[in-house]
Design goal:
single chain; 857 residues; alpha+beta; Phosphorylase Kinase, domain 1; Transferase(Phosphotransferase), domain 1; Methylamine Dehydrogenase, Chain H; 7-stranded antiparallel sheet; 15 helices
Length: 857
């Protein structure tokens, strides 16, 4: 029953009713002691009947009252009058975000402003261990002066039952009308829907759903019933933001998607991380209350920059010079000194103990070499070590290098770790399947990131043999802190070879767990310790222009500088940085049926081939660059060179035999999707927990063969029904391949020992293919099913393809692909048509220059 004006609750005199709902009534009241108007929320009587819940409410309200933050409703007092618990807070004038959303989507600038203010408020609460657990537009208030306030902070947690009592359902049942019920349910995190224990990442999911709604004018998750909505939260992805709001940049869309990851571990680590990324996107400081205008990202910055005329470019540089002059009064800009001058690609570069620079490079169309560059000497000296990638230089002048590098997936590079003196000599091999390594301060031990083929896991080891981290995610760039207490590394949070992910640290004593310091990056390419407490790294939220940033072990983030086109941090020594600037990309070359010359099929500069039609007349690929967007863009193109058709977003995986359907997957992994190449409706195909990576249609088009990893299992192959999405494993753990025979009855698979064989899909047994050891990769079958096309696994500009009889192992040369041109890094294994009269392959190109950088702070 509503209280009448004049009713007193302690020193507070009720004046009028402001609002009511399932969680109580809110009144305007007068504080007789301090002579000010306040808001008094009277809670349901059911709360006062439960002594334990009332006690927890009082404890939480007192804790919330300690949150003195401009984006959190200030709580002044709590009390009980005539059995009615109440909370006293500041009185606000304005409207809730829900009321504002009734008129549709919110302009981009305002939506970012509100999201950033909310993130700041959540961050302040998380620092004190408090989470909201009922964040929704009804609980965000917009004051008349533009300030956002989070309402009911901490109360949602205590007006529900505990997690083991199905916390989320209690909130649902408190609603009094359908819209309120769905409104509450629609912002729950998946773990909240499941009734699991919660932390601050649950609030981040809710904020992601709110930001999505502000930008699109539509709810991220909404069904006809609360159960339908909860099912959508658990299993479905919201529609792409860019389809509802063309002003949403790929970087902003990625931030929203990162908030809405189903797994808490895949979201932003904290609200402060989210706030940092929103500030970075908005181009403002943490103390600013107003956002600068934001424009949508252009389709391709590389293409647009290439068209800038001389006069506008001169004006741009004049403006840049003025800006540097103005900022120079506060802080001198960094100085870049170029130290390489030849044409080609640079791999890793490191400072040697005497201050010289050691680096690996492919110059002027030649093979990979190690070089030494001394100060003020533009002509780098060859070290006499070929086909080796530099990993680290010890304080004693010993090199850690990677030999026989292969590219098993995406950007992952694996090889044999070896040690060799800087002064020269033969490498001493140490360990296989290593991606990266770093010397400890003692000059004897190494930290390594390596792949474990037996279970498809990744290890971070220090020293070698002592496992600090066992992960299903691929990890790279381990760097030992100067004091030897920490190892920083990149956790890429996927196993598909995408270099997105987080900066993390782990204690070298093996006593602690992985600690993520900075999350949500589209790309991470370099890590170095600037001090015992701060890690420097280069990353980007969109595209490939990585720029230097810093994060402390305690998680404090900051930008260091922005470099046009970006840079890759390589090393830091006494405040001086070593960096490489790259112009790189991926292209596709194809030979169409009946033609004699290859044709370029790549589209936006970072194209990755996924499939070729059985008749060789169509190629399926996706673009992962800036123009492709944060979710990538999928294309289908005729191999005769006609312009491609855009089919949607995600990673392309497979093309049906009749070229009428494709299989895609979200850029960061997830369920497989079935997408028509013409008229028709897309649908989510799989509904299991398998993380698939390679997919192929069976000849009848009704089944898929896919390799994947499921919790508790190693990589294996699965059959998936196209009409239902039901899946079943067809090979044991550790056996996979997805190279289907022409009749669809068998597949070429790789066993745990790396050797190849033929596995009938009826599950009988594996028949080895003579001579095909782990040094080869099977590309495709011949049309008669008697042979397979194979490529020796190697890193090089030339790919030699052989045809091998599956029964006798007889090996005959088939084709040589690629070119020795300067800047070409490697050629991937080709995809070959059924008749062998057409093929296509991806190639990588890169030109680089190295710089010594001073003045970074």
């Amino acid at each position: 029953m509503a209280l009448t004006p004049g009713t007193k609750l302690g020193p507070y005199e009720i004046q009028s009713l402001l609002g009511a709902g399932g969680m109580g009534e809110v009144y305007r009241a007068r504080d007789s002691r301090l002579q000010r108007d306040v808001a008094v929320k009277v809670l349901p009587r059911a709360l006062s009947r439960d002594a334990d819940r009332l006690r927890r409410f009082e404890q939480e309200a007192l804790a919330t009252a300690t949150l003195n933050h401009p984006n959190i409703l200030a709580v002044f007092d709590i009390g009980t009058s005539d059995g009615l618990p109440y909370v006293v807070s500041e009185l606000l004038e304005g409207e809730t975000l829900r009321e504002r959303l009734r008129s549709g989507a919110i302009p981009l600038r305002k939506a970012l402003d509100y999201a950033l203010q909310t993130a700041h408020g959540l961050a302040a609460a998380q620092e004190k261990g408090i989470i909201h657990r009922d964040l929704k537009p009804e609980n965000l208030f917009l004051t008349k002066d533009g300030r956002l306030k989070i309402l009911d902070f901490g109360l949602a947690k205590l007006t529900q039952t505990e997690p083991d009592e199905q916390a989320s359902i209690a909130t649902v049942s408190d609603g009094t009308e359908a819209g309120v019920v769905l409104g509450t349910v629609g912002y729950m995190s998946p773990e909240q829907v499941r009734g699991q224990s919660l932390d601050g990442r649950s609030d981040i999911f809710s904020l992601g759903a709110i930001l999505y709604e502000m930008l699109s004018g539509q709810r991220a998750f909404c069904g006809d019933t609360p159960a339908d909505t909860m099912s959508a939260i658990l299993k479905e992805e919201p529609a792409e933001l860019s389809t509802a709001n063309r002003n949403v940049s790929p970087a902003l869309e990625r931030i929203v998607q990162h908030c809405l990851e189903k797994s808490p571990e895949a979201r932003f680590h904290s609200a402060s991380d989210l706030g940092f990324d929103l500030e970075h996107l908005s181009g403002i400081s943490a103390s600013s209350a107003t956002l600068a205008p934001i424009e949508a990202a252009p389709p391709s910055r590389r293409r647009l920059l290439g068209r800038v005329s001389a006069l506008p470019l001169a004006l741009m540089m004049l403006g840049l010079g003025w800006w540097l002059g103005q900022s120079g009064a506060r802080q001198a800009p960094p100085e870049f000194k170029r130290i390489t001058f030849r044409t080609g690609a640079i791999g890793n570069a490191r400072f040697a103990p005497d201050g010289s620079v050691v680096f690996s490079a492919w110059w002027d169309g030649g093979g990979q070499q190690l070089y030494l560059n001394r100060e003020n000497d533009p002509s780098a000296r060859e070290l006499g070590l070929k086909d080796a990638e530099l990993l680290s230089v010890s304080r004693n002048g010993e090199l850690a290098v990677r030999l026989r590098t292969v590219h098993p997936n995406g950007l992952i590079e694996l090889g044999t770790l070896a040690r060799v003196p800087l002064s020269g000599g033969m490498p001493r091999e140490v360990l296989d399947n290593v991606i990266d390594a770093d010397w400890a301060g003692d000059g004897e031990n190494l930290a390594v990131a390596r792949f474990i083929p037996a279970n498809a896991h990744w290890h971070l080891e220090y020293p070698i043999g002592k496992v600090l981290l066992d992960s299903i995610n691929w990890i790279s760039t381990p760097k030992i802190s100067p004091n030897g207490k920490w190892i920083a590394f990149a956790d890429h949070e996927n196993n598909i070879g995408d270099d997105e992910g987080s900066i993390a640290v782990i204690a070298t004593d093996g006593e602690g767990r992985e600690k993520k310091l900075s999350t949500g990056w589209e790309s991470i390419e370099g890590i170095a310790w600037a001090s015992a407490e701060e890690v420097w790294y280069t990353s980007t939220m969109s595209g490939f222009a990585t720029n230097p940033r810093a994060v402390t072990v305690s998680g404090k983030l900051r930008n260091i500088t922005n470099v046009p086109g970006g840079m890759v941090l390589q090393d830091v020594r006494n405040g001086t940085a070593l960096a490489v600037v790259n112009l790189s990309g991926r292209g596709i070359r194809a030979l169409a049926p009946g033609t004699r010359e290859e044709r370029e099929l790549g589209w936006f500069g970072w194209s990755l081939l996924a499939a070729i039609a059985p008749d060789g007349r169509k190629a399926l690929f996706f673009d992962v660059g800036e123009a492709g967007g944060t979710n990538y863009t999928v294309f289908l193109r005729d191999t005769d060179g006609a312009p491609p058709a855009t089919l949607g977003q995600g990673r392309a995986l497979a093309l049906s035999p009749d070229a009428k359907w494709i299989v895609t997957q979200p850029a960061r992994g997830g369920s497989l999707n079935l997408v028509p190449t013409g008229a028709g409706q897309s649908k989510t195909l799989t509904h299991d927990s398998v993380n698939y990576n390679r997919v192929s249609f069976l000849p009848d088009g009704k089944w898929l063969l896919a390799s994947g990893i499921e919790a508790g299992h190693g990589e294996r192959d699965y059959l998936i029904a196209v009409n239902t999405g039901d899946s079943k494993p067809v090979t044991p753990d550790g056996i996979s391949g997805v190279r289907l025979s022409p009749d669809g009855r068998a597949a070429a698979v790789r066993g745990p020992d790396g050797k190849w064989g033929v596995w009938p899909l009826d599950g009988s047994s594996m028949r080895p293919i003579p001579r095909l050891t782990s040094e080869y990769d099977v590309v495709n079958w011949s049309s008669d099913g008697g042979s397979v096309y194979v490529e020796p696994i190697q890193t090089g500009k030339i790919a030699k393809i052989y045809k091998v009889n599956v029964t006798t192992g007889k090996m005959d040369p088939w084709k040589t692909l690629g070119t020795e041109a300067a800047g070409i890094q490697f050629v991937s294994a080709p995809l070959i048509s059924a008749e062998g009269n057409a093929y296509a392959y991806t190639y990588a190109y890169q030109t680089s220059q190295a710089y010594v950088v001073t003045g970074l702070r």
